[in-house]
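Meet today's protein:

…
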Amino acid sequence: METELIVTVEEFLRDKKGVSAEKMRDSLKESSANLKEIMDTLDESIEEGEFEEVVSGANSLKESLINLGLEELSMVAGNIETAASSTSPLYLNCYYMRLRRELLPLLNYTD
């Protein structure tokens, strides 16, 4: 069963990036693996309080989400970037957990 998130990404990849139906699964799997790696690194950086790494990871995540047509979630990644840059990153974990929850269908994409 495809979730709304997966459908949104498929439509964006097909309509805006020209990904063919034959290559869609591979594109989604590649995107899933890329997002997992970024999210895992971001989680580790947040845990360890490495805020420069959080800023860098959030920026990478923001760009990846834009390239998948997930503008609203890219703004949440931007909030992580901003929070990590501030002197009081109070909402950092909240933003991260929201992103992880919302991206779960794509992070777990297998077919």
Observations:
- The radius of gyration is 14 Å.
- The chain is about 80% helix and 0% strand.
- The first helix runs from residue 4 to 15.
- The helical segments are 4-15, 21-48, 51-66, 71-85, 92-107.
